[in-house]
Each structure stands twice: as C-alpha cells, then as structure tokens.
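Many groups now describe folds with learned vocabularies. In that spirit, our science desk offers one protein's residues alongside their backbone shape tokens.
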Amino acid sequence: MKYLLIIIISLLTIYLFGQIEFELDFSFDKIESNDILVDLWFDDLNSDGISEILATFRNYPISWMLVQYDQNGSILTVRNEDLPEEYNFGKGTIFNMDGTNYLAVAYGYKTWDTYPYTWINYLHLKIYDWGTFTLVDSTSYEFGYYGEGNGTTFYTEFIEPVEFQNEQFLYLGLQRTEHYDGDEQTYANTELHKYSFNNSTLTLVEENDLSGYSIKEIENFSNLISIDYYKSHVSYGGGISFSENVSYSLNTFPFYSPINITEVLQIDGSRNEISWTHYPSNICFLNNNDNNYNDYGLMFYYKSRYSSYVYTVNFLNFAPDLSDTLWTNSETHIGFDNISVSTCVTVNNEDHYVMYFRENNLEIRNRINGDILYHQNSTINPISILRKLNGDLVFITEKEDETGYNVYTLVGDIQVSADYNQIEIYNNDLINYPNPFNPSTIISFSIPEESSVEINIFNIKGQKIKSLVQESLNSGYHSVIWNGDDDFGKSICSGIYIYKLNVNGKIEAVKKCLLLK
C-alpha cells in the first residue's frame, strides 16, 4: 500500500507539474515564398471581438505588403504597393481614429540630384484609409545626400501609433548613419520623429536625437519608455584594423510635447580587432504582454561581451516610475545565445513571472526577486509571442520550409512544482574559439561543482587522437588550449574534429571544430 501511494503521488506530480508543452493551433502562409517578414501583431479590424493576425512583408517588385489573416490562417485582406527600385519599405502599422482604421507606411526613397551629382535620401510617410486603400495624406523629410561611401543613410526602426487626450500621434524611430572617407568612418545614432494626425492632416510636430531604437507604451503609465543607440566605427588600413564605440541608454519621456528625455540607464562599451570591453548587445524589454506593470515594474535585459566568446548577461528590474532599480542579476556565460522573445506569464496562479526563449531553451524568471523559477529544453523556437484580445498567448514559429508560420498555444496553465524543478539548471557552455582555427584553439567550458573532468579529441572516424584534460576541477569556468596535435605531440592534418566533455564519467556535451592549414 505504501509503495502504491508513492507511485500515485509521483504520477500526480508529473501530471500536474509536467513540462511546459505547446500545441499547434493553426498555420498561415506567405503569399510568395521569398516574402520577408517585417512585423506581426494582433488587431480587431472587423470589430467583431475576434483577433486577426496582421503581418507586414517586404519583397520585390512589390516593395511592401500588409496581410490580414483570420484565426484559421486564411487571408482576409491584402494591401500592397508597387514601388520603383529607388524605394525601400521601412515599417507599417494600423491605428483607429474616430471609428476609421488607417494604415501608416514609412519608407525611404532617393532622387538623383544633378548637382552635386549624387543621391538625396528622403523619409516618406503615407496614411491610407484601410477600408478603401485611398491615400489620405503624406509627407516627406530630407535626410541628406549619399554617394561613393560619403553622406547620410537611414532606416526605420519602428513606427508606433499613440493616442493621447483624443489626439492621434505617430512616433517614428529612425537610425541615421553618417559616412566619411569612403565608409572608413561611420557614425550612427537613432532619432525620434513625432507626427500628429488630425483632421486627415499629417504634421511633423517635433524631432529628437534620442530614443529612436525602441519604444514601449505601458497601459495606464503616463510616460513612454524608449531606448537610444549610438555607434562610431573607424577603420584603418583598408579595414584590417578598426575601433568601435557603442552606447545605449534607457530613457523615459511624457506623451505631451516637447519631448523632454529623462535618462534612466546608460550602457557603454567598445571593441577593436583584438579585444572587447563591456561591448553591449541584445538590448530588450522582457515584460511584454504585461497586465501588471504598476505592480512589478519594468524588466530589462542586455549582454556585455568581454571577448569574442565570453560575456555577461544582465537582468534588471526597475520600479514602475523608473525612479529606482529594484534588483539586478548578472551571470557570466560562454557562447552566443541571445534572448529572442519574451512574455509575461502566470505560473502556479501567480502573475509575477516572465518567460523568455534563448536558443533551444526556455526559462521562467521571478519579477519580484530575479530568481530563475524554471528551465527546460523547448520544443519550439518562437520568433514572436502575441496576446489575443481574450488574453490567450500565442507563440509563432517559422515553418521549416520557410513558406509560412505556425501558431502554437500553451497546453493548459503553467504549473511548476518546487520538487519537480530541482532540475540541474546548468549549461556547460562548451565552445572553442577561434573556429575554424590554425594552429591552435581555446576550448572553454563550465561546471557547476567540483568534478572529475575529461576532454577528449576524436577524428571524424570516431578514433580518439588526444586526451586534452583529465583531472579534478573546481566549479566555474575553465579553458584549455589545443595546439592541433595528437597524444604524441605530432601536428594533425586539416579536417573536422570532435571534442567531448565528460563530467564525472558522463558525456555532457559534444562539439565539432575545423582545423584549416
């Protein structure tokens, strides 16, 4: 009876607190297989209380296309525009004003100026009536000339509709790059353009040279939250040597004009052809699809790279008014895994968690203290996570044949048992750099506790040629140099080689490397 009870409890635990699973809901296809997806979001353009998927694509000769799909994946509406080669689609979005749906489209175009014999770059913003696809208004903004590696180029980072006090605004984030000396020197920064749209008239209200990288509107929060970006790149000797400085800032500013920026956080870094110093990347907001911002604040993430393969991941949580940092969490990693998408989730009927996907893994982190609650290998790798009008989350992945997209939903509520979650949340971070290499490479790895470690090298036939490590090591990160030789010190020939990490007699990871002579 005692053993039967244990079995029943174990089965109940697995049933109630099993792995997070996803099931396919429906799929939708591109119109042309070579369409390039730009953005995805849900909307209810039919005003029937049912969410439709809106997707913008770019392609040639059709410069841009916006497609409306129902929840069976069927195409409801297509809006597109044929444009000349000199035009380049940026972003598109839909907003509702006084009961009418409008389509806003931003793109770049260039015209040839006979003096000084160069191209002039422009931003063009158009507003269409979505239902009739008739042009309502448009405006252009001159960015400057570009030719032969000198001048100004730009592209659109985002277009965000915001309604404030019964007025409609469009915020455009733009990255401007100044080129000098035939692209030997480039200086890029983001800027923000704010347009009003009232009485069917589009007007540039103001522009600001900050906060054009990303923007976030929080329901019931009086300010917009944004990210700014700056990069300088100087090459020497035809690109053989270079120096690069990068800066990101987290900012906030009110809806009303003028745009007065308050900086919350600044992240700086640099690199050259040899070394990296706190080089930031993968900057993103994590609390997407957030219904509880006023309770738990803003969750923010970025990476700082210290070499070509060693970096720190940084999680931060700010108070809702962004006046203080509630907690920070930093972890050293080896490799290149980026957080791709994230969303707020309810776990064990509690609403203070964020789920994010990194390579082939998903993690759930507590918004209150920053601790990891749960980790597992993921059966899907979403490119986007959206929330329907009814509150359900959907996870969108690209089809393997790249002809369209699959839409997944969660199987049941997320329930995680503390006992079940005593999985070893451990990534051995096995990697070698450089790869390909000649004549030597550094193999790096990590172990969670003091262990007996072996690293062995095998040729493509599976024959062991080198015992590289065979010792007891303390917990943490380790690295060892392999000089491309065998156990007898003899140099080996070019080819693919396999290296295996064994920890306490168990194979933890297997990777490939390429020796090129």
Notes: The domain at 431-515 is CATH 2.60.40.4070 (Immunoglobulin-like). The chain has a mean pLDDT of 88. The chain is about 5% helix and 60% strand.
